[in-house]
Structure formats: structure tokens, C-alpha cells
DNA sequence: CGCATTTACTTGCTCAGTCAAGTTAAAGCT
DNA sequence: AGCTTTAACTTGACTGAGCAAGTAAATGCG
């Protein structure tokens, strides 16, 4: 298996990584800035509103929402609290499971989402789709999928939750 | 100018964005985790050591280092303080300009960098280069450059520093 | 040469995110 | 039915980053 080669990057690889790393560093703030400036939303929070706006009854269980948002439950819980404080989301107990909590998008939240959407889509067009050819766009899809798959296969990869490293389950002291 | 089209994503665009957004969310932690676990370094801090290790005298002015690292001066200043506290970097006054500060990589810092490098390169291979074909790698370089360029052209883009929005310079009250 | 400006940082405040440790509810086992 | 596990969050302590304001040195210019 030709896996762990010489631990060096070729010149080509270095070019690739340096360009890509710059995007990794700059793109998140570039996506956040317009939403923050105009709508008091981070890109992450916008993503939550997006998921809820699309969901039946504009309602999702927190754990499902965390999954959609590629987020830890902790991060989600705090984000929902912020959105709740602004009146854009409401928490409700899940009637079918007392452990779960439902997040419901309020009308104000939906309005805010609708207001923010054009600006956000414009940003995406400007920084992602306009600068790429159709072919490059397709390439980016494939490349992203492959990288995402590789990340999921990393040693200690936790899909989204804070899996408490099960240790050896069922090995109680007895 | 066919610029601000209908504010919607096509299905293709949605596919692209959803795949790419996942990478944007997952890759940074995937790069950080091994460095943090094994070497008490974030990926960002590793980048600083990398830049210093390559520099003449293993020394760079903070502002230059900030530039290399795509970082604000604030972020850099704090990061250097952390590395200094661990004994991996030293601050020195710049003899040629009293305002500047030099960051010098210590021997311990260099050692730490050398120790961490193989693990980090292995991570890069695993999550970026192994999963891509040579062609895709070239495509990623081009795509990244184009996106980075587009970001730089965004309305309020600050290259790296915290440019205090000059307003109208030279327009004092007088 | 003296004073206003600009440059190069540094630091206080605040906020978002993580990890670890709780809490409450459902499931599983016997 | 009772007791241990597991699941679904929530919260406290801590860390890293951003913005705004502050400091100190150099520069510009009249």
C-alpha cells in the first residue's frame, strides 16, 4: 500500500495547499460579514433559519437541526438560545419524547430569514459562482465530496455530536 | 452587466454549495485536531512556526508574519504571546524601527515544529491529496485562486490588517 | 524644528465555541 | 417493577478571536 509517502509536499501540492488554505481562512468571514452587518446574523445562524424555514411546521428537533448544520449539540443549543432571545425561534417540548426539544421558527424569524436571503445569495454568487466556470463549479462539487469523505474517515472523527468516546461500554466494575 | 441575477440558486449550485460548505465547516477542525492532540498547537500556530522556520535568522517582523498568516495583527499578537509563553518564540525589538517587534523562533520552537511537521503533512495527504486525482488537485488550485480573488474584491474587504476605515483622511475639523 | 498624522503594535471587553459535568427522560435488562 | 444505560440536551469554566481604544515611535510638512 503506497500510503504514507515521503512526508513532504511537492511544489504543486504546496501551490494547491497555499491557495486553498487562503480560501479556508478568508471565506468564512466573507460570508459572515454581510449577514452580520445587515441582519444581525452569523452565517451559521442563517443556516439554522434556512433549515427551519424549509421544515414542516417550521419545526425541527434540536438534534436533527444540529445534524443539518454540521454542528455540535452544544454549539446549536447556544445558537438557538441567541435566536430565541431575538424572538426568531421558540423552544417547545417534544410531545413524543420528553428528552427532546423542538425548535420552531417564529413569524419574525421567517421574516428576518426572507429579508436576509437576497443579500446572502448575492454574496454566494459574487464569491463562488460568478468567479467559476460551469465546469469548475462541477469540479468543486466533486472535490468537496471527496474531501468530505476523507475527513469522515479520519481517526477520531465525530460525525457531529460530542460522542463521549464510549471506552468499553458495559464494562462496569462488577 | 448581467450581474445580480434572480436571487436563487439552481439545483446544481445548491449541490455545489452544500458540498463545499460541509468542507468549510469540517476541514478546519480536522486539521487542528491532530496538531492539538499531539503537539499543543493549533493549525494557525503551526503556520506561524512554519513561516518563522523558513525566514532568515528564523525572524520576522510581526506585521510581516501577520501578512503571511492571513491574520489580523490582533490575532497574531495574541498567538505570539501564547507561543512565547511556551518558550517557542521570543519577541525582540526591531533595531531598525522602534515601532516594530520581531518574532524569533527559538530552538525549542524549531524542535517542536520539526516534531509536528510529519503528522501535519500526513493529515494534509489524507484529507486533501490522497482523495483527489492529479487533475482535481490542479482544478482546486485554480478554483481557490479565483475564489480568493473574488473575496478580495468584496465591498468592505480588509486585506489582513484592521484598517480603521479611513473615512476621509485629512479632513480634520478645521 | 515642532506638531499633526500615520504606523505598529497591545490590551480590555465581549462573544462564540469547546470540553466536561450535570440533569432529566426513555430504554433495556432481569 | 427496579436499576443500570443511553439519549438529549444544558450549563459552567475556559480559550481564541474581533473591535475599539490606547501607547509609543517614526514620518511629513510648513
From TrEMBL, chains A, B:
Residues 151-161 have a biased composition (Polar residues). PROSITE patterns: HTH_MARR_2. Residues 151-174 are annotated as: Disordered. InterPro entries: HTH_MarR-typ, MarR/SlyA-like, WH-like_DNA-bd_sf, WH_DNA-bd_sf. Residues 13-149 form the HTH marR-type domain. It comes from the Bacteria. This is MarR family transcriptional regulator. It comes from Herbiconiux daphne.
Amino acid at each position: 500500500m503506497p500510503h504514507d509517502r515521503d512526508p513532504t509536499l511537492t511544489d504543486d501540492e504546496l501551490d494547491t495547499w497555499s491557495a486553498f488554505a487562503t480560501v479556508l481562512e478568508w471565506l468564512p468571514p466573507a460570508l459572515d460579514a454581510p449577514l452580520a452587518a445587515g441582519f444581525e446574523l452569523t452565517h451559521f445562524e442563517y443556516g439554522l433559519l434556512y433549515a427551519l424555514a424549509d421544515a414542516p411546521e417550521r419545526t425541527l428537533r434540536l438534534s436533527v437541526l444540529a445534524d443539518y448544520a454540521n454542528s455540535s449539540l452544544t454549539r446549536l443549543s447556544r445558537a438557538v438560545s441567541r435566536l430565541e432571545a431575538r424572538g426568531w425561534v421558540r423552544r417547545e417540548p417534544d410531545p413524543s419524547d420528553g428528552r427532546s426539544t423542538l425548535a420552531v421558527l417564529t413569524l419574525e424569524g421567517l421574516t428576518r430569514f426572507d429579508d436576509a436571503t437576497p443579500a446572502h445569495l448575492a454574496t454566494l454568487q459574487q464569491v463562488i459562482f460568478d468567479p467559476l466556470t460551469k465546469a469548475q463549479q462541477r469540479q468543486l462539487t466533486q472535490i468537496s465530496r471527496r474531501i468530505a469523505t476523507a475527513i469522515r474517515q479520519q481517526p477520531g472523527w465525530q460525525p457531529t455530536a460530542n460522542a463521549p468516546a464510549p471506552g468499553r461500554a458495559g464494562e462496569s466494575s462488577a
